[in-house]
């Protein structure tokens, strides 16, 4: 069985360099990493992660706490978990899903929290001694990963303006006290103000059925072409159903945009123009940031906002799928 010394000799580097590549790859150049990885592959060397964890007083466990109703966020979190687990696997970490009550049961090295509401932060963080990364914007200076929610809403609203709509309504989730929703509303509002348009906003549960009912009430009395910027694809599906029931023509007298771009936007007919969040990539970065924080003894890492992408489809433009 190959040893670390064998790998060092094969790669013509020191044992300390091989150890650094294995334990702290972020501190090593890509060229050096590839040299060591190639030697490891040729020698079929497998690092003893169990021994390393014992020496470093690590568990090789990361916990993932979801503080939202799963039925309102699926399949979004499956993509997020894919990204997180993919990155953790590279470093031989296991991922555990936990609840608010069970988060402190059993040893772990770090915690990723999502769905954490501002008024719950102190309760969630109470008693935690391990590094934490939040998935989602917050106003409490907690290290976090999220999409640029304001820019996403700006892209959607500007698109609707550019294709000729002047009555543009915002459908938000009834969590206006949360930073991500405030950012999306601000993005919508900034475009409306820039073009001297009248703002009109409604807030409700993240439900296609509720959004459909509200949209039907508004659209059946609409006197001119109307566009609706939705804070989620789930809500946009409901608006599309309402417009279809009223025999409205997408891209002509009705236009609908969503937000997220994770599967639901593609099952609607027509498919939904949406603001796509790179969720898998965001999950990978979330895990990277937490592992870096663990390796640096809990040092502050800051927050990262990913740029969103506007995907244009048939719910806003005639002739698109």
From TrEMBL:
Domain HTH lacI-type intervals: 2-56
GO MF, one example: DNA-binding transcription factor activity
Keywords recorded for this protein, A-Z: DNA-binding, Transcription, Transcription regulation
CDD domains named among the record's database cross-references: HTH_LacI (cd01392)
Stored SMART domains: HTH_LACI (SM00354)
Any one Pfam family match given in the protein's UniProt record, by short name: LacI
InterPro entries in alphabetical order: HTH_LacI, LacI/GalR-like_sensor, Lambda_DNA-bd_dom_sf, Peripla_BP_I
Signal peptide range: none
The protein, known as: LacI family transcriptional regulator
């Amino acid at each position: 069985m190959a040893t670390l010394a064998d790998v060092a000799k094969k790669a013509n580097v020191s044992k300390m360099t091989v150890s650094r590549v294995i334990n702290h790859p972020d501190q090593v150049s890509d060229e050096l990493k590839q040299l060591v990885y190639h030697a490891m592959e040729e020698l079929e060397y497998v690092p003893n992660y169990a021994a390393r964890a014992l020496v470093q007083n690590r568990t090789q466990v990361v916990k993932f706490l979801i503080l939202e109703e799963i039925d309102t966020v699926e399949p979004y979190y499956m993509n997020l978990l894919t990204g997180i687990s993919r990155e953790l696997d590279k470093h031989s970490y296991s991922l555990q899903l936990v609840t608010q009550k069970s988060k402190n049961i059993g040893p772990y090295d770090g915690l990723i929290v999502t769905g954490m509401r501002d008024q719950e932060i102190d309760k969630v963080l109470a008693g935690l001694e391990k590094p934490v990364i939040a998935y989602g914007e917050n106003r409490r200076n907690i290290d976090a990963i999220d999409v640029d929610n304001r820019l996403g809403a700006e892209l959607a609203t500007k698109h609707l303006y550019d294709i000729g709509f002047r009555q543009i309504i915002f459908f938000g989730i009834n969590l206006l006290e949360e930073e991500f929703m405030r950012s999306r509303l601000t993005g919508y509002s900034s475009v409306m103000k820039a073009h001297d348009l009248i703002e009109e906003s409604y807030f409700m549960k993240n439900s296609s059925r509720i959004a459909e009912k509200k949209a039907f009430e508004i659209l059946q009395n609409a006197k001119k072409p109307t566009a609706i910027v939705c804070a989620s694809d789930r809500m946009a599906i409901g608006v599309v159903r309402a417009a279809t029931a009223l025999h409205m023509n997408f891209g002509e007298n009705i236009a609908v945009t969503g937000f997220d771009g994770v599967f639901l936007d593609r099952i609607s007919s027509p498919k939904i123009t949406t603001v796509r969040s790179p969720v898998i990539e965001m999950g990978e970065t979330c895990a990277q940031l937490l592992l870096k924080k663990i390796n640096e003894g809990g040092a502050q890492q800051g927050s990262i906002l990913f740029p969103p992408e506007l995907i244009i489809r048939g719910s806003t433009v005639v002739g698109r799928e």
